[in-house]
Amino acid sequence: MHRLVGNVGLVTFNEQETPLIESDILKPCVLQQADVPLLSILQISDLHFGPPLVPPVAEALLETAHQLKLDAVVVSGDLTQRAKRSQFIDARKFLDRLPNVPRLVVPGNHDVPLYRVRERLLYPHRLYRELICDELNTVLKLPSAVIVGLDSTAPRTAITNGRIDSWQLDFCQQAFHDTPTGATRIVVAHHHFAPAPDYLRDSTMPKSRRAIMRFIELEVELILGGHLHRSYIGNSLDFYPGVHRERGIIIAQSGTSTSRRGRGREQEKNTFNLIEIFPQSIRLTHYLHFKAINGFAPNSRHEFCRYTPASAGLNPA
Asked: Which of 43, 188, 208, 216 is a plausible cystine mate for 149, CB 3.0–4.6 Å?
């Protein structure tokens, strides 16, 4: 069940053409619930510090972030435009001005030097490690969630489309091994595992299906990413029906949050996502920057039932 309420005032319910496979974990849930979530996460992406940055938008994002009651911040890559030291320094200053809550950051393809070929081949993440985070694949454990950040950059082989290697999937398995019952399992990577449902026809990462199938087996509920420079909120079942058709993975792509590099319907627009985790559902609110108010405001809201075994016991029978 997927509820979408946007500026157009529509409420839509997506139905499968073929009945879902019945199982013990497929139970109805109640979407209407208390206003206080278990966990609130700010997802921003594709900051592109450098020439594409729009400083007034960056300031507006900081203002909105401090107005939200956040438990964590996720930055899904491309903090800089050309991986220059000055750009990383500015990006770090911006990150330090965000609310003082736990934070997870992953690199994007723009965070490795493109034209400085020798540096890209020998030590592509040197400045990122020095100024942003020493670890490229990270784990953030919170009371209500375990968030795994994966480095999808492949500076020596697949600069644009990225790549997730099999050892990184094993890294996920180890990170989720002792996840408490009821906690949400989240994966963050810069590059997208599924294409946006529009006319631009972006190529996904190589072996995306393999990664999605592994994530489903690991009971991942949510994937956060960027790279597309436009928002997309949907479900892995839209692209990879797989063998577990009763429980897909929610996919939340953030557009560019602070630069003028928006694409498609978000050309020259800026967006971010607010993720709220409830015992029975996950709510995602898509924020858009409006020049009329010189600030960000909610533009659409999406709510998904939690169908994983970890939360099945919380759903009514």
From this structure: 188
